[in-house]
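Write out the bound-state structure for adenosine monophosphate.
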Amino acid sequence: MTGVSSTEPSSAADRTAADHIWTVDEHLDDILRHFAPLAPADLPLLEAQGCVLAENVILPAALPPFDNSSMDGYAVRTADVADATEDAPRILKVIGDIHAGLSDLPTVHPGEAARIMTGAPLPPGAEAVVPVEWTDAGTGAGPAITMRAHSADPSGAAGEVRIHRPVVPGGHVRARGSDATAGELALAAGTLLGPPQIGLLAAIGRARVTVRPRPRVVAISTGSELVPPGEELTPGRIHDSNSYALAAAARDAGADARRVDAVADDAPSLRAALAEQLTRADIVITSGGVSVGAYDVVKEALGDEDGMQFRTLAMQPGKPQGFGLIGAGPTPLFGLPGNPVSCYVSFELFVRPAIRTLMGIELATRASVRARCTSEITHSPKGRRQFLRGWYAPDSTVTPVGGSGSHLIKALAHANALIVVAEDTTEIAPGTDVDVIPLMQ
Ligand code: AMP
Ligand code: MG
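---
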């Protein structure tokens, strides 16, 4: 299927053993080898924002397309104003107004000027524009900043203007092709389309553009305890936050994401919900039900699926993970753990890179930086890579936020980074440099 290759599981024989404990990197590599950029699609320009260009865009015409004024002023022949000074201004006959968008241009003959506005085409005969500030603006008085209409008749002669300074040929003129020439490469395939690139594409007349489209992502929470936000809680129940956090995170990653209502811990219900979503998504994410409890519904519903694997990872949070390609597509399914922090951290580490790969973004994983940890970290589990929540400050320090509990969703919401504590590190003294993954860019 497009964007996903259903090759056999990782070749390393030991990894196929049921009791193999996967490192974070092994699990990510094993996931990413199933993903490739989605087939290009032709999208309306604004819908392509944040997408990667899948074509080389060539300039069909010069930019700007014609010589035009960069100032409000007077289009002149430079020889006419070569000797102009404050004390001895040159007086030129004003033959009319040229506003932006005008196509029927008057010719400027010796001794003449045309009043011209910013962006208006330079008329034939004129070689430069004298800014209005260097003239009397046609008032017959000294220099003036504001421009006054010369004549009620836009095509007719419009009086005189006093020019106080000379201007060089091309002065205050934006020459045709001075930004880019026809046939030049405007944007190369592979470019991420941010606002300036969208602006350039519009400037050269493109209403649509060929890009790697946004992957369609569906987030489904599992859990009989879950109640949608907006509904009252009854004893023992909690609000479903994961499907919201996941859909938001997937959108943030660039996907076209949505959520569906939580499914109870009942395998047939989950299979039915998945059957409905699998054909409508490039990635399906479930939360909950992947550990070793009695009601681990994702494991129960999908445990026998050929393409599905449930794994133990050497990480905290996020130890139980499910991943596989299922259904007729097949469609990649991420079975993330249910604890809200585990779920979100798992998304950041594994799902986000998959989404970015489908989008054709070369650096699919978030960059990490080094930062000085302001406080002590203790009891980091040996043999597991720990991802603590932290606040990364502009002075390259990081401060842990909340503890290691994977239910601490408020602390997560007050963090902007993950602090990475390596597998073999169990303690970090204050002032030590640590790896940090900022989450905000
Ligand atoms: P599970 O992985 O299904 O065993 O869930 C682990 C913990 O996460 C339990 O305390 C669940 O109640 C909680 N949890 C699971 N799914 C969600 C969800 N969608 N929103 C909030 N909490 C959840
Ligand atoms: Mg559950």
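---
The chain has four domains: 21-38+213-358, 42-63+181-212, 66-175, 369-438.
Confidence is low (pLDDT under 50) at residues 7-11, 142-157.
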